[in-house]
Write a structure and sequence with these properties.
Distance between the termini of chain A: 14 Å
Structural class of chain A: alpha/beta
Family (chains A, B): Belongs to the glycosyltransferase 34 family.
Strand order of the largest sheet of chain A: 4-3-5-8-7-9
Subcellular location (chains A, B): Golgi apparatus membrane
Protein name (chains A, B): Probable xyloglucan 6-xylosyltransferase 5
Main location (chains A, B): Golgi
InterPro entries (chains A, B): Glyco_trans_34, Nucleotide-diphossugar_trans
Order of helices and strands of chain A: HHHEEEHEHEEEHEHHHHEHEHEEH
Oligomer: homodimer
Largest sheet of chain A: 6 strands, mixed
Radius of gyration of chain A: 24 Å
Amino acid sequence: MGQDGSPAHKRPSGSGGGLPTTTVANGGGRGGGGGRGGLLPRGRQMQKTFNNIKITILCGFVTILVLRGTIGVGNLGSASADAVNQNIIEETNRILAEIRSDSDPTDLDEPQEGDMNPNATYVLGPKITDWDSQRKVWLNQNPEFPSTVNGRARILLLTGSPPKPCDNPIGDHYLLKSVKNKIDYCRLHGIEIVYNMAHLDKELAGYWAKLPMIRRLMLSHPEVEWIWWMDSDALFTDILFQIPLARYEKHNLVIHGYPDLLFDQKSWIALNTGSFLLRNCQWSLDLLDAWAPMGPKGPIRDEAGKVLTAYLKGRPAFEADDQSALIYLLLSQKDTWMEKVFVENQYYLHGFWEGLVDRYEEMVEKYHPGLGDERWPFVTHFVGCKPCGSYADYAVERCLKSMERAFNFADNQVLKLYGFGHRGLLSPKIKRIRNETVTPLEFVDKFDIRRTQVETKPQN
Amino acid sequence: MGQDGSPAHKRPSGSGGGLPTTTVANGGGRGGGGGRGGLLPRGRQMQKTFNNIKITILCGFVTILVLRGTIGVGNLGSASADAVNQNIIEETNRILAEIRSDSDPTDLDEPQEGDMNPNATYVLGPKITDWDSQRKVWLNQNPEFPSTVNGRARILLLTGSPPKPCDNPIGDHYLLKSVKNKIDYCRLHGIEIVYNMAHLDKELAGYWAKLPMIRRLMLSHPEVEWIWWMDSDALFTDILFQIPLARYEKHNLVIHGYPDLLFDQKSWIALNTGSFLLRNCQWSLDLLDAWAPMGPKGPIRDEAGKVLTAYLKGRPAFEADDQSALIYLLLSQKDTWMEKVFVENQYYLHGFWEGLVDRYEEMVEKYHPGLGDERWPFVTHFVGCKPCGSYADYAVERCLKSMERAFNFADNQVLKLYGFGHRGLLSPKIKRIRNETVTPLEFVDKFDIRRTQVETKPQN
């Protein structure tokens, strides 16, 4: 909810496309576990970018040699250190170019990558119709792999990023911090993580890549009750809060959104696919099958994009993204699906970052972890920041600093058990928040989150 | 073991210092969870490096404008895309510089950072003498947090990296891949991960940072039986292999090394602290207390380095590192410690990468996962590669490609359950290795590692 009570204006998840700009070629965004969609073929765009970077660095090197006589040696540091630095940078770029171009000589049997035939119907895999009973039989036969652990249904968190280095170097650093953040939350809550860095299906690249991976995990992990997809640009910011699974006993899809935006306004941001739970069951396999057809890249995805833009309020013109496609599916086949869909907004299963990141200090002052809502958001989601790509919808500085703040805000909650906290929300340095003791276990009893776990009730 | 039967020449772990060079200023290496040691103050070296990079990019920009008239517009791409790219790169660098300089205005209460008084004795914390009984009592009172799970002692894997972006951009990308690799192994073996990105003790930065963190985790997680430290430049390459804990029932420290190198030659690489297990008990707290005093940075660490160089065979001259200090401690106080130390070399708890990475294809052809030794190494450790830093001991290209191969070699073992594999060990692309089916559970029964887990016996 926005600060004035109305739903905050939300863009789709960071793995979706942002508002198109003249340079939307790379604006397709960093897909969680997928490649980037775009108007130019990705290879050509990358090649151009690399040519630019290589020429820039070579020219810079030449220019340094020329300028040294003018500016003086002192300001530029020692020649050998410069040369070594340059050498390493050039060599790294050359290797990066090689890795990115993926010139593996054993790639001889790779079929020619073309767009899918627009007249063929895309399928995620062979149609399974009895998954509920297959799964039930397997669980009975494998009691050492129950679908509930310590009274809670087993959850597997799926996230990921593309297999190649980010265009923007800082992107990999924030992907690293993001996965550490997820490791911390999941360790405290007994949730397994799968970090996907592979494209299971070249047709469904970019933000669509989550669909085949979710399906694959369901079928490979019958012991898992819920698959929780989470974007790599979404951070946990309430380390204590637990998903209130009891609310969803009769539902199969839990997704953050607003019913009025969905049903009344048909808004393209009525739901957010940056963080949602899908139950491991036949219904979900059917949903994925119905959801996927707009995804195959090329003419199918482009044409589908036009349909979605025409149908959904506020949607700019760009190729079909998974979020818009899901909204369209749930609206156009409302009777088929909506009974089992829980549109959740009592807590921030997805929390749009802009209205949250400046209030962390105020939250610490007034509230406490475990609330999960606007008082202490469960998830802060950096929609549109795209630190991995070249083109963001928001100012780079604002994004990076905000992500740093969110990360440290969460990290403070984790470090509390160990007696430390960050010096400030922008500081990587930590300080002691309590003295060392020869009886450390009293603090374990007091601060270990797993021991103080309560089922939090949503507000209202 | 090396290929010719003699122990392979091993440098200390990647988080330790490598052979010193004239530019050893940044050669202190990337500490796991610590900062970088070095001869120049880190801030000044960073500042110089940033000045160099900023000037390079500015000059390159000017040069491009000049050269465009000569080379032609077509080869350089559109002006607006270049300008936007440049803008983003410059802004990112400026923000990086700000984040790195850590100019948080709330840092007012930070004491002046100076070196520790060489005459004072460094302590990790107040002396605890009854940890075994404290822990035992707590475990009795908290049966819901047993120290064994499914018949195996509870292990917590500790790894980490410095809180700031890597000097070399590719470094963060490989840190990300490395943690994904660890997530996969630990998920399959029920091991919890703590990824440390904080300096708990500014005295013990760099490779020493693991000591206070290990101690902190022991005292905060009484339910954990073993803390397993693993460097961020070490990758799991045998996804099936399990640590044979039964071997270590009478031991408290399990570390890879060679007794003859240790006792006969007093070699500085007789043991490797890049991957070792420490039992959560009083003995370990005492070991950490005895180990730490050579660590405090400044004169203490420098002087200790000289002692270590004089005492240990083959050690170059540089500040004290944790590995050399441990070897020195175990040798000079042999009777106190060695009874509880297991020097393991029956499998590659640490496997020096150089003799391993070229043989992966041969391994796939001849052997199978689960062996953990030179036939299928448990851990491949990229000692000396330092992708996060500026100065490596090995050629950048060799290191990056080898790490890529090791990562994909391991990833293939994980993807097998899902029916995929990499197209080649250098390729981020994957291909199906078996067809989809409507009865996927037969493959779960066949390929899920957790279901086929056997206690592997070491060779001999």
